[in-house]
Amino acid sequence: MTGNPGGTTVVEWDVGSTGAEQHESFVRLEREIGLLLRRSRAISARLARELHPDLDGAAYGLLALLADGGPLRASDLVARLGLDKSTVSRQVSSLVALGMVDREPDPADGRAQVLRPSAEGAARLSGIREARRARWEADLSGWPADDVATLAELLARLNRIGEAREAQAAPGG
């Protein structure tokens, strides 16, 4: 795959590939990503309980996004995650009530609020992320460093495609 000046991705197949081989590649990709997503949801639920016994898995992801890209408005979270506004609102309220997230006035618009992990939320999240990184390092210890870097780059490219698609699907996008 290569990028072009218009910002879209162009798929380039080997000249020797058949339509059936290409189709089978996408079937396998869908299957493997589906498995990864199911496993990820289960892991997020477990990690959320480690953060706080009353926290659900989806809220864990929201806290991680705030830690990585915050402070953010709730509307930013809706746009980035592609979730329903009421779902995000419920998760934010839960995180605030549990002391994991703080609401602050938006410096750009005092009428609005931005969200950021509280000191406790950031500390708990950092500890869990460090444990996750250590597990990835153990699980992939037999992989060459270049393969790990390639996997990370390919996943980043896939995530950018998903983010662009969500942005286009959003109202006004």
TrEMBL record:
MF terms (GO), sorted A to Z: DNA-binding transcription factor activity
BP terms from Gene Ontology: response to stress
Domain HTH marR-type: 29-160
Domain of life: Bacteria
UniProt xrefs under Pfam families: MarR_2 (PF12802)
CDD domains reported for this sequence: HTH_ARSR
Protein name: Transcriptional regulator, MarR family
Species: Geodermatophilus saharensis
